[in-house]
């Protein structure tokens, strides 16, 4: 039984690594807009604050490379954003060393509220967007990354699997509570990467 479970997990991880879906994001700003809309669906003011803050936290120019856009989204949706004033690529890679699970947005909202509050002044200074541009979905794909090397040579996340969705966990029987829409087991304990495969 354990061998079958291990085989299924390894097969899933291999499939995720070698068949990543193409990014549906137009540029880095679009990643932040999508995430902000999911966290604050009815609050445009808070969406703007979130986008401005996230642009400040991911200000490292390397994050602008198209092949990192889905990784930014994965990082945000798996609870990787804590209290740092800047997100380094190596810190994000460290976050994905253990298998991760996409969180329900209700877990992300309180920490994002705190991060917005703590970085408000610096984020506003860093912001170069006009007010009407913050939530407008970009039309273009953004600028081509400034590199002559293809993504398979420069992508630092190469070989690191994408996070599990709740549906994938349920499909492989890795959650302890079937039909759960949150990252908790039957006892209310948060499911982490360490719980996968137990």
TrEMBL record:
Source organism of this protein record: Sporisorium reilianum f. sp. reilianum
Protein name: Uncharacterized protein
Lineage, top ranks: Eukaryota, Fungi, Dikarya, Basidiomycota, Ustilaginomycotina
Region spans: Disordered: 138-159, 175-198
Entry superkingdom: Eukaryota
Keyword tags: Signal
Endpoints of the signal sequence: 1-19
């Amino acid at each position: 039984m354990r061998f079958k479970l291990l085989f299924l997990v390894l097969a899933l991880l291999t499939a995720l690594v070698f068949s990543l879906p193409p990014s549906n994001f137009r540029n880095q700003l679009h990643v932040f807009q999508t995430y902000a809309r999911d966290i604050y669906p009815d609050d445009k003011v808070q969406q703007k604050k979130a986008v401005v803050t996230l642009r400040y936290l991911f200000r490292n120019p390397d994050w602008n490379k198209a092949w990192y856009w889905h990784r930014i989204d994965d990082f945000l949706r798996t609870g990787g954003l804590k209290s740092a004033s800047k997100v380094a690529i190596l810190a994000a890679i460290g976050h994905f060393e253990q298998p991760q699970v996409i969180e329900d947005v209700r877990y992300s909202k309180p920490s994002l509220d705190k991060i917005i509050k703590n970085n408000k002044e610096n984020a506003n200074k860093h912001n170069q967007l006009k007010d009407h541009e913050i939530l407008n979905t970009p039309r273009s794909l953004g600028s081509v990354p400034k590199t002559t090397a293809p993504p398979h040579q420069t992508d630092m996340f190469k070989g690191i699997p994408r996070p599990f969705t709740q549906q994938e966990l349920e499909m492989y029987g890795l959650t302890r509570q079937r039909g759960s829409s949150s990252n908790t087991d039957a006892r209310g304990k948060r499911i982490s990467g360490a719980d996968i495969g137990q």
